[in-house]
Amino acid sequence: MLRSAPSSGAETLRSTHRSLDLKIVGGVNATDAEFPYLVSLQMNPEFGNRYHYCSGSIFNASHIISAANCVEGRSVSEIQVVAGALTLQTTGADDPFIQRRDVVLVNIHSQFDPETLQNNVALLSLNEQLQFNSRIQPVVLPQQQMFVGNCTVVGWGSNLTPDGPSPEPQFLLKQNMTIVSLADCQSIYEFIYEIADTMICSKGTKDEETQGPCAGDTGSPLLCTDASNNATVIAGIFSWSMVPCGDSSYPSIYTNITTMETIF
Question: Which positions fall inside the Peptidase S1 domain (predicted)?
Fold first, then answer.
């Protein structure tokens, strides 16, 4: 989700920045099976053209973690999960490595606030279990909220255009990110949006460049190294960012996965 500064400052913010990009800004191509826990949330082709609109992570063979605003207001029958894809160009083709599942139940966090986007997390139940292989694996949850080194955000971005779904393929991108302390993040957004304790903030590793997730990356995981065991874990779920995406002055915002234990 993309947000602009409210009130009279909005036009000033928009007018001083570049036009909107619809994918991870500054990202580089991921490699095959590098992120086997990432899935694409797509419109079920039974309800019209198939297209990617959000991402998620495999929690286990029967469940997907994503953002609540990716599923709120949608019928579960409209949502299809696509696992094992590297490029969205192949998700409509007969690729033996790709598995598609329908969603039969959505469990949105009971305290999700669609206005502030606090507790922006949901658990999706699949109609059939995923079969794990080298390209389809569950994500690892953190043991504690302590991470070392840089983090990584991954996603396909959006293939939605103002005229509707675009046929252009979207390759999976990754971008290194650095965590911004909650106190610093709250200070940055003090007069713009509320940053709750249930959120994580991050920005690109190079202040002089625009780096970060954008439209279509909502629900994508923020992957960090767990300080307790050096495992790559999901630290957060991409929730929203300011326009333009990747501006180092305004960190991108994620739901902190360690505060979401009640939904699991």
Answer: 24-264
